[in-house]
Specification:
- This protein has about 120 residues and is an alpha+beta fold.
- It has one domain.
- The protein is about 40% helix and about 20% strand.
- It has four helices and five strands, in the order E-E-H-H-E-H-H-E-E.
- Strands 3-5-4 form a three-stranded antiparallel beta sheet. The chain has a two-stranded antiparallel sheet with strand order 1-2.
- The chain is globular.
- The termini are far apart.
Amino acid sequence: MTTLATHRLEDPDQLALVADIWTVTRERVAEAFRDFCWEQARMYDGWVNPSFVRSDLIRKFGADGYNPRQLSALWSTACARDGYLDNTDTWVPITGAGSRGNTNKSVRMRRWRGWGT
């Protein structure tokens, strides 16, 4: 059995361990992530650009203040069945701080679930 802060998981999977929101530090990043996604959705008619969200997180927590693997897990969780974002078929170039050598690659845009319905 694994314990993440006070939350026990009988059979944790890798994603749950990386996306851990049960510790205070990780919870702050997860909350900021959702807030930044919501701000993007409000500014861009429901659209969320992952590069902009990453830049917002770096501005808030610093380049070493978040784990890129956690960020990937947060995207997966946000786009899961019980999440608040949908994947789209729209791709945009990866830009901005923290891209770590991914410039000229593309990232899938997300859309706030239920926007405009």
